[in-house]
Amino acid sequence: MQTLIRRLFRQPDPPAPSCFECGYRDSQREGWYDRKTGELAPGFAIGPDDICVDVGCGSGGASMFAARQAAEVIATDISPDVIAQVEKKFARLKSRWQTFVSDTDPLPLADGMATRVVAMEVLEHVESPDRFVAELVRVGQPGAKYLLSVPDERAEAVQRRVAPPDYWRPPNHVRVFAKGELESLLQRHGLIVERHYAKSFFWAIWWILFWAADQDLHAPEQPLLQCWTKTWDQLLRTPRADHVRRALDDAMPKSRVIVARKASLSKHSPSSRSQLVTK
């Protein structure tokens, strides 16, 4: 009888999280999307006085965070459909925002107008990384902060073996950045690298399983992906979750992330590019 009563009154298992919910919680544990500190990423705070340009905004996660921090937001993407979806999200917020369909060559923005510039998971798609970064630097004010990320070469090496050939053709991934290559690119254009770190073993494996399951990006997750998401969700509930997660992130992250800064010039500051890079 007691066993029957326990079964009748047992709380139902919580619904399995989506991959996006799980990935969001995974990122939050590393200080991403922190509304209290205003940090979109560790070391990259956004506030009401900022003008944030989100280049290649995609689904608009960074743009929405910046808007909720009361910053003025300018979101750009090469896809008109993407921009239309982001505009619907902006319309629900009381915020200052603009959108542009742009390939960033050039950006339809004035020189030195932004205090925060975001370009996450974009550089691997562009024909000329140097021209792209030059545009990002052009629109930033002196002292502006930059948040950039690219897929890690280790995760990309596995994807190279399992993803279909179209994944490696325009407009998809056309290049892989080797270790240190992104830092060198940014420094060539006068940016000062303040922080860099690896991120998201969870998404690295999710994408590998995505190809294995022949998953449609716009369809519900298949059982293989659901199992992986549920496994990671269970890991995040364990006492040693952060220790294990960071070890795996170091071993094979989905992305490498850099926070950088444009030099602040004054009458006493050096002005040559070589001096700015080595400051």
Structure write-up:
The chain has 279 residues and is of the alpha/beta class. The chain has a domain at 32-45 and 103-201 and 250-278: Vaccinia Virus protein VP39 (Rossmann fold, 3-Layer(aba) Sandwich). 39% of the residues lie in helices and 20% in strands. The strands form two sheets. A seven-stranded mixed β-sheet has the order 5-4-3-6-7-9-8, with helices on both faces. Strand 1 and strand 2 form a beta hairpin. The model is unreliable at 266-279 (pLDDT under 50).
List keywords for this structure.
279 residues; alpha/beta; Rossmann fold; seven-stranded mixed β-sheet; two-stranded antiparallel ribbon; 11 helices; 9 strands; 39% helix; globular
Oligomer: single chain
Which strand order do you get reading across the main beta sheet?
5-4-3-6-7-9-8
Give the overall pLDDT as a whole number.
Answer: 90
Largest sheet: 7 strands, mixed
**CATH architecture descriptor text of the domain at 32-45 and 103-201 and 250-278:** 3-Layer(aba) Sandwich
| Envelope shape | globular
Distance between the termini: 75 Å
Weakly predicted, low-confidence segments: 266-279
Determine Rg (CA atoms, Å): 21 Å
**Total strands:** 9
Structural class: alpha/beta
Corresponding CATH superfamily of the domain at 32-45 and 103-201 and 250-278: Vaccinia Virus protein VP39
**What would CATH call the class of the domain at 32-45 and 103-201 and 250-278?**
Alpha Beta
Note the beta-strand portion. Answer: 15-25%
Question: Level of helix content?
Answer: 25-40%
Give the SSE string: HHEEEHEHEEHEHHEHHHEH
CATH topology of the domain at 32-45 and 103-201 and 250-278: Rossmann fold
Number of helices: 11
